[in-house]
Amino acid sequence: MSFPIPLASKMSGASIHQLAYWRNTGVLVPEIESAKPPFLYSFRDIVALRTLAWLRGDHPLQLIRRSLDTLRELDMVEHPSSYKLIKLGKSIGVHLEGEHAVDIAKQPGQSTVGTLADVFAEFETIRQRKVDPLLRPREGVEVNPSRLGGWPTITGTRIPYDLVAALVGDGSVLPEDVGDFYPGVSAQAARDALDFDQSVKGSVA
Fold it and tell me: How many domains does the chain have?
């Protein structure tokens, strides 16, 4: 499953400007389509971008770049989403076994004790923009990494949120009537899908 820029921005918390800057400077290049528009991100890219946006909330980009360089120097060359990066005070670490982490920013290689933060939870960006929880951006919308490649769906179903949002978006079908088209989709879930869809589209404005 590939994620277009507006949805990648919404799900990761990285602004569209940040996505472009990080793509152009090699901080994170989308693994699906990176050569020319439309740029498309994978779910692994979304997780990595979300981690970067979470770190960027209170760490300078230069320190984040240094951390990514250190990962490569340590032969940790898998996709960035494969590693659990954590905040170590004013530094950044990579989480290892148990509660131990290795500093990869200010004092590379120094082992310390760190708490694994959940970047899937709600957080605020450096510009105080609230980022929805990744796995449940709305009560009626969920993200299951093993379902449809991580594409947001109506909670408890395999129905993509955007199909339901398109159905009720122009007002021709009421949320209360969506069950006639998609059995099992409640009116509230339809409203949640529409609200999430509008927030995705609003990130482009």
Answer: 2
